[in-house]
């Protein structure tokens, strides 16, 4: 099993598409945002070259295990959403996202999360998982608004922007939750 290379997903207001080289400047700009630096460990070391490498190569490396999308709203780069830690045998994948500062608090992250989850379920996934740092209340709110259920707190389960370990809230969404 595999995700589809080059797939485009459309929701009511968003286009979710593969990353392109032209997205690198927006990825770099987002990495300079204090809120992204607070939660995303990659942000502090982002350069134009690492952004280009991400957009042209790393975001597309293995559709059997991961799929990454640029989120586009009103023809403008709004953020990133991806599927990872995919286990086709168990029918499980993890969704992760970040939003550019201008695109926050507009419901785009919720809409993109729902769109990606629907795509994963169509591809045969049974369970979607989402991890959010315990202090990242906004990300937890996205999970809940997208219909995910809070299951547990995993001790020191993720690195955050400071390079420190953080406890993470585990959320899940089952295919049966949305049918």
What is the typical, i.e. mean, pLDDT? 96
| Number of E strands | 8
Helix content estimate? 25-40%
So, the CATH homologous superfamily? Gcn5-related N-acetyltransferase (GNAT)
Largest sheet features: 8 strands, mixed
Strand order of the largest sheet: 1-2-3-4-5-6-8-7
Question: How much of the residues is beta strand, in percent?
Answer: 25-35%
Give the SSE order as H and E letters.
EEHHHEEEHEHEEH
What is the rounded distance between the termini? Answer: 22 Å
Number of domains: 1
Q: Supply the CATH architecture.
A: 3-Layer(aba) Sandwich
Reading off the top of the CATH hierarchy, the class is best stated as Alpha Beta
CATH fold-level name = Aminopeptidase
Rounded to the nearest angstrom, the radius of gyration is 15 Å
């Amino acid at each position: 099993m595999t995700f589809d290379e080059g797939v485009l997903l459309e929701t009511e207001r968003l286009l979710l598409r593969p990353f392109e080289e032209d997205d690198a400047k927006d990825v770099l700009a987002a990495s300079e945002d204090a809120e992204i630096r607070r939660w995303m460990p990659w942000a502090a070391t982002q350069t134009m070259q690492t952004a280009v490498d991400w957009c042209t190569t790393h975001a597309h490396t293995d559709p059997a295990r991961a799929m990454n999308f640029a989120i586009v709203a009103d023809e403008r780069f709004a953020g990133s959403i991806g599927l990872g830690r995919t286990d086709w045998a168990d029918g499980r994948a993890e969704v992760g996202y970040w939003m550019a500062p201008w695109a926050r608090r507009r419901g785009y992250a919720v809409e993109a999360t729902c769109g990606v989850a629907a795509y994963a379920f169509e591809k045969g996934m049974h369970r979607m998982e989402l991890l959010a740092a315990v202090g990242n209340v906004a990300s937890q709110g996205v999970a809940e608004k997208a219909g995910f259920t809070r299951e547990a707190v995993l001790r020191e389960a993720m690195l955050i922007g400071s390079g420190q370990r953080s406890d993470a809230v585990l959320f899940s969404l089952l295919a049966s939750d949305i049918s």
